Amino acid sequence: MAEFCVKHGVKPAVILSSPLPRARETAEYVAKATKTELEIHPWIACGMHPERAVEELKEYRTRTSIMLVGHEPDLSTLVAYLLALPSNSQVNVRKASLTALELPVYRAGAGRLEFSIPCKMM
Q1: Hey, where are the domains in the chain?
Q2: Model confidence over 9-23: pLDDT tens digits?
Q3: Under CATH, which architecture does the 2-121 domain have?
Q4: Share of the chain residues as helix, strand and coil, in percent rounded to the nearest 5
Q5: CA angle 45-49-51, nearest 5°?
Q6: pTM metric for this prediction
């Protein structure tokens, strides 16, 4: 994923990661490759609630882009929440995938899916 980001100019303003090893290690690798600031947050760990995530993300609203590195099914649930889908069964955020949402305001249903690329297509 890191190589894909570098090759295609995907450079977030900040990377926010779960503190759990697998996510943190992935985030560290991407941050190093893209020369991006990395922050570790316990609220992104397994069991992240979309309402809390949106509240926490408001702190970063001045950033041009944010990359979250977390866990499933939490990320699918967050994407469904931001796209106003009734459940995460309509969204499948795969492990090591890259999913981009446009979020003009930080609230449920305000998102627009830009793309979702599974790892095997990178």
Answers
A1: 2-121
A2: 999 999 999 999 999
A3: 3-Layer(aba) Sandwich (3.40)
A4: 40, 20, 40
A5: 135
A6: 0.94
